[in-house]
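Quick one, tokens below. Sequence please?
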């Protein structure tokens, strides 16, 4: 829009007539808010807090749906606007076009601002001339993020069509949506009895190519069951050329939206202007059928002494038209209305009470309602709010900045106070930041107990970018705590703690939000540094403060306590305090599920899986990972946002089953080929699992070099007794693999060996070196009999005891016991570590070898030593009918039924609306439960055991 040369009357104070252009309004005896002059008088100061306003209606509405970043959805955006009853002109010729267009998958309605696009489609919906139920969504620039967009589409469908089944799911992250969610949505649409209409208003905001591709895929997968109506000023990024070529696109363009001469006359008449053909022709020629321009011009002409002559003065030039609309149309409004419109132009949506807060008066509701009734500048929204016409609001903002630039920031601060006081802290924060009121912006974030969103929420990237702009000269307590949190997002724990040491003594003891924000920063720093003292201190302080936080704020921001528990659990895990770590991580994993806690819960579940692995329970660890994956799928967490610990656990369990290729693939997924990040638990775990992979591949010296590199560089400034134990025990195993028992024992000098798996490795080294054999065997027997010891650790202890018994009957019994302990989880690695002895011993026990066909072929006797008909090398041993089999889950049974139909992995994924990786994980679990090697054998076994019969 060209800059406005002719300014309207300055914003006069209430009770005064409009003043001449560029002339300050006369002073009022007792104004409640200073006027906005076009000159530059001294601005009246704003109060430090929001002015008192009339309360909003007291009725408690239903809890609004939430966006992926935790914000409530705006109900007004999923409801079509109501055409004004008096001045609105129905367009029958265009309604007929829409009736015909709705028979095609895509309809495009495009034209300039004010062309009448939105009201035309809203009127079409209101008349019920549709092929099926309809949903409406008004888009905004923030919807360019896939997760936000599809969350709003989902809410629009629920509002206008029907409630979606829970299994369809909802996006959990603003920047991403899982493809499986869109497949489930398409399946739901295809199952509807009638086609449905989805209107996307202001679709010009869709300029995200990936999002356009997803919307195109939905249109393609629904095969005409979805009728998409796109309304906007320009074409979106959808492949419209394909739709045109296929005859699937109907279009209504600006030329058709433009009023013809008869419609122009009808609009003027609906505004009470019965003028002659010459005046109608002049208006029609000057405005080229621009609907909004005709309506605005009609409003101005209503006040003229001679409307016909007034309409004949309009200049057809675009700049002159802009000048005319501002100077002539706005001038027809009373001074209080002009003042309100200019002040409220900084807002996209305005509530009457918010307008009063900006003007300092009490006439906002009356003025906004009158403007809506007159169809001038504003649209009434269903929830009591109003929206200024975007084109006119833009003109007003330009004029406001030109006439009174020093007042713009003051108005934004007023708006921030009011919005914060009415539960809209995000909008308040944005206005405060835009005004450069950083102390207020930081206080809003901290007082809302929302600092966790900057560290772990879906809005973290935007909030970090926002507060990165905060100048270093801002030193309020809240600003310093926010600055420390920003340092944590960059993994700068030392910088965060330096700020905390300076600001923490200055925090008032009664200010719970500030105190809890300091605790949150401390737990985050403790996790990065691996500092148990820091974590313990923070945990004690958090327990003291938690009961002082209002319950409704904790419900609104569940990520706060979840993040603290997750950070505490990870830090305690780093120090080997597995029981305490497990309790903290269980709290995080069972926190209320929300878009801001989905990733924290996923990470906590995977760390609990890591604890299971460390306790020698790989099967249980893998089940935890599956649980975490299923929850992540339901929450639409994208793969790149899932924790590295997931693949670390999968790599470790793959090694226990002697599957080095799968372990290598999991490690590659974990880091994408990069070095581990800043989490000490991940850094250590990655090094240990990689070293064990080297051992599995017969490269013990490479394992030792990797461990030494990790000790000297990866963990140089973040050591703990537990990390030293993990590295030393793995080095001991490497020396044993290299045939150096003396070096293996020496590797454990001055290092505590407290964990059960560490005790087993140490015992193996001492037995190999011939040291303290009786005491070592006693320790192994204690591990064998300890019910808390996991299957992997017990299997290794039993194998060592069996080897110590040589070839006695006791040895066979212990070997049988070890095989029984390992069989449910197919733990091959312990037997591989003792391969020469296991191979020799099983030659003398062929019946035992035959009973355990899951062992690697090279550990069992050659086929010629066995019955060819039952050779496990050539035919898998199947469970006997009626033998105990671990029950299949419902999802595993569904996947196995699909496999019985000879569907591929991708076809199964498409049919069940899950990812191919999820299908593979479930098939692997099925093979383990049924003791089979592939899906064909699994189907055969499940069929024989009648596991696939209909319940």
């Amino acid at each position: 829009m060209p800059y406005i040369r002719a300014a309207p009357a300055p914003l006069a104070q209430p009770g005064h007539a409009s003043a001449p252009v560029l002339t300050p309004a006369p002073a009022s005896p007792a104004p409640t808010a200073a006027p906005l002059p076009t000159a530059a008088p001294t601005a009246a100061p704003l109060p430090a807090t929001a002015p008192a306003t009339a309360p909003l209606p007291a009725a408690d509405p239903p809890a609004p749906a939430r966006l992926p970043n935790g914000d409530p959805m705006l109900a007004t955006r999923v409801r079509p606007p109501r055409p004004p009853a008096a001045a609105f002109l129905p367009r029958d010729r265009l309604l007929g076009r829409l009736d015909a267009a709705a028979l095609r998958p895509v309809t495009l309605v495009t034209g300039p601002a004010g062309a009448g696009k939105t009201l035309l489609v809203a009127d079409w919906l209101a008349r019920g001339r549709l092929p099926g139920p309809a949903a409406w969504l008004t888009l905004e620039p923030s919807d360019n993020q896939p997760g936000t967009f599809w969350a709003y589409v989902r809410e629009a469908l629920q509002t206008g069509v029907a409630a979606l089944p829970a299994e369809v799911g909802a996006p959990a992250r603003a920047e991403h949506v899982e493809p499986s969610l869109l497949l489930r949505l398409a399946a739901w649409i295809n199952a509807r009895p009638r086609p449905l209409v989805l209107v996307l208003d202001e679709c010009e905001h869709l300029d995200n190519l990936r999002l356009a591709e997803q919307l195109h895929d939905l249109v393609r997968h629904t095969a005409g069951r979805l009728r998409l109506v796109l309304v906007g000023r320009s074409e979106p990024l959808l492949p419209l050329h394909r739709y045109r070529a296929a005859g699937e696109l109907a279009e209504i363009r600006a030329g058709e939206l433009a009023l013809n001469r008869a419609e122009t006359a009808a609009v003027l008449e609906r505004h009470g202007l019965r003028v002659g053909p010459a005046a109608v022709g002049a208006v029609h020629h000057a405005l080229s059928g621009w609907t909004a321009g005709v309506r605005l011009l009609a409003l101005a002409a209503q006040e003229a002494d001679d409307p016909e002559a007034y309409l004949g003065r309009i200049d057809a030039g675009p700049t002159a038209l802009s000048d005319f609309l501002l100077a002539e149309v706005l001038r027809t409004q009373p001074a209080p209305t002009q003042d309100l419109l200019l002040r409220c132009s900084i807002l996209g949506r305005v509530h009457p009470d918010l307008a009063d807060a900006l003007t300092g008066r009490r006439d906002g509701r009356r003025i906004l309602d009158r403007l809506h009734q007159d169809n001038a500048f504003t649209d009434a929204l269903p929830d009591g709010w109003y929206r200024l016409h975007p084109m006119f609001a833009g003109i007003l903002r330009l004029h406001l900045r030109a006439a009174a630039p020093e007042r713009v920031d003051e108005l934004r601060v007023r708006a921030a106070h009011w919005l914060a006081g009415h539960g809209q802290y995000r909008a308040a924060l944005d206005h405060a930041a835009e005004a450069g009121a950083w102390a207020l912006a930081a206080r809003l974030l901290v007082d809302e107990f929302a600092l966790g969103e900057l560290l772990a929420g879906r809005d973290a990237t935007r909030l970090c970018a926002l507060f990165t702009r905060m100048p270093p000269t801002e030193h309020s307590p809240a600003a310093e705590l926010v600055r420390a949190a920003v340092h944590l997002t960059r993994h700068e724990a030392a910088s965060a703690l330096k700020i905390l040491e300076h600001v923490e003594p200055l925090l008032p003891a009664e200010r719970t939000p500030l105190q809890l924000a300091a605790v949150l920063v401390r737990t985050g720093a403790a996790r990065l540094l691996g500092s148990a003292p820091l974590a313990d201190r923070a945990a004690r302080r958090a327990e003291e403060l938690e009961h002082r936080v209002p319950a409704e704020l904790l419900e609104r921001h569940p990520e706060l306590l979840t993040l603290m528990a997750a950070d505490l659990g990870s830090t305690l895990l780093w120090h080997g305090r597995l029981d305490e770590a497990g309790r903290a991580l269980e709290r995080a994993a069972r926190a209320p599920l929300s878009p801001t806690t989905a990733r924290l819960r996923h990470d906590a579940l995977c760390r609990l899986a890591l604890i299971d692995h460390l306790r020698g329970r790989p099967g249980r660890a893998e089940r935890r990972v599956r649980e975490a994956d299923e929850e992540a799928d339901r929450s639409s967490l994208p793969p790149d946002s899932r924790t590295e610990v997931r693949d670390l656990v999968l790599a470790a369990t793959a090694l226990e089953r002697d599957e080095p290729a799968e372990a290598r693939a999991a490690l590659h997924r974990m880091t994408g080929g990069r070095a581990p990040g800043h989490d000490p638990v991940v850094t250590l775990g990655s090094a240990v699992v990689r070293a064990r992979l080297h051992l599995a591949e017969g490269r013990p010296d490479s394992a030792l070099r990797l461990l030494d590199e990790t000790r000297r560089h990866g963990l140089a400034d973040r050591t703990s007794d537990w990390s030293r134990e993990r590295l030393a025990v793995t080095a001991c195993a490497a020396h044993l693999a290299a045939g150096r028992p003396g070096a293996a024992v020496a590797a454990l000098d001055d290092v505590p060996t407290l964990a059960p798996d560490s005790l087993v490795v140490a015992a193996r080294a001492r037995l190999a070196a011939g040291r303290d054999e009786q005491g070592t065997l006693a320790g192994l027997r204690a591990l064998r009999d300890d019910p808390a010891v996991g299957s992997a650790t017990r299997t290794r202890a039993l194998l060592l005891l069996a080897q110590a018994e040589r070839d006695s009957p006791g040895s066979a019994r212990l070997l049988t016991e070890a095989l029984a302990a390992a069989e449910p989880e197919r733990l091959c690695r312990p037997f591989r570590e003792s391969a020469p002895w296991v191979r020799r011993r099983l030659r003398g026990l062929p019946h035992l070898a035959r009973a355990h066909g899951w062992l690697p072929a090279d550990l069992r006797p050659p086929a010629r030593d066995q019955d060819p008909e039952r050779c496990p090398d050539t035919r898998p041993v199947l469970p006997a009918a009626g033998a105990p089999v671990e029950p299949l889950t419902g999802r595993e049974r569904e996947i196995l039924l699909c496999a019985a139909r000879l569907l591929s992995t991708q076809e199964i994924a498409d049919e069940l609306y899950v990812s191919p990786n999820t299908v593979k994980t479930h098939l692997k679990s099925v093979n383990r439960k049924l003791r089979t090697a592939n899906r064909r054998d699994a189907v055969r076994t499940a069929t024989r055991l009648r596991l696939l019969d209909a319940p």
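The longest helix spans residues 512-529. DSSP finds 47 helices and eight strands in the chain.
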